[in-house]
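Hi X.,

You mentioned you wanted examples for the new student's onboarding notes, showing what a folding record looks like when two proteins sit in one file. Here is a clean example. The first protein comes first, with its sequence line followed by its structure tokens.
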Amino acid sequence: MRTMMLAGVGLVALGAGFAFGQAAGQGRGSAQSAGQTVILEQAPTDHAIPISKERLEQYVKDMDAKKLSTLRMIEGGKFNVNIRRITSAETALLHPNTIDTWVVLEGSGSMTTGGKIENGKIVGGQSHPLKAGDVEFIPAGLAHGVSGVNGTITWLNIRWDTDWPK
């Protein structure tokens, strides 16, 4: 687990590097209202953001206390770094121009990708086990969803849009 957490922190730093000099503002804050994701920090353009294993663990505790399934640690406009923590299956998703990279920190379930989404479920996709230590790369436009969650499953979700100016 320690190795996976450290690898996850390295990927967070990598994800923050996707800013490519895009200004997204600075500062810390917490914005929460119905249907909105809590955002902890805007992506800086002048310094790195270290996130220790202990800080990640505290974020997860805070999420549990507030019953949050998503915590956006870093918001950069066309990229972001999140913690996702779920206890049951989710409605399948498809992001037309957003790539996801997941680093599973704890828990297990089943990941389904591909196929078509019908009534919130994937039809005709492929499923495989998802467990702590796994890394998932999900290209833009690919249906994906998690089911069969055993207790909770927690992952870092590093996302970036594909519609950057050339």
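Then the second protein repeats the pattern, sequence line and then tokens:
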Amino acid sequence: MILSRSISIKLPMNVYDTIDAIAVEKKIKRADILKEALDLYLEEWFEYKAAIERLKDPGDEVLSEEEFFRELREDLNWKV
């Protein structure tokens, strides 16, 4: 069983109207739009935190853009 809790927030009217329009277009509930938006935000937040931790790690090599793409091409066997 998935446990859940409710939360109540006040939104500016333009944000509420945008959420409402998306819900109508997608034929889903406003709450589902908000859940999806929060999931995306939280995913980005945790990726951001992981990236910051990696930047703080002196043992984690930082590649230049050129090095990154060269290694990516090699890893994917791209012939460019």
